[in-house]
Amino acid sequence: MLDTYLKECLYFTANRLGRVLTKMAEDEFASCGLAPNGAFLLMAVYEQEGITQKKLGEMLHLQPSTVTRLIEKMIGRSLIYNQVEGRLSRIYSTDKGKALQPQIQQCWDTLRDRYGAILGIEDGDRLTLELYKASDRLEGKIQE
């Protein structure tokens, strides 16, 4: 009976999937010395130098306190710096942070290839998109 409940529970299966993917991502991003969230934060900064801390949190779907801790850690490693403009904190990558860009991209590509080899690239892409849409709906961003 419990086995059926677990298989039919979105909460349980989503958390299980999250743990499996977190382990895979941590393994891949370890080669560039970053946690996955740190790597994705840097990728967001590369794309939009001077991004606000608030926008980073929205893009990465992280709570403000989590973003603050992550930024502080990345500043401590001299990978990014912040510039305060009034009430806004803008984030920029340092030369040291920019130097990691090719390695981060390789880690991301390797991670995608790794789960694609197991799930199939098309199925992995489809699952990713469906999970993203489901997350948006559950957060109330999209009404169907």
TrEMBL record:
| Annotated HTH marR-type domain residues | 27-124
> Which InterPro entries would you find in this protein's record?
HTH_MarR-typ, WH-like_DNA-bd_sf, WH_DNA-bd_sf
Q: Which SMART domains match?
A: HTH_MARR
Name of the protein in question: HTH marR-type domain-containing protein
Q: Which organism is it from?
A: Saccharibacillus kuerlensis
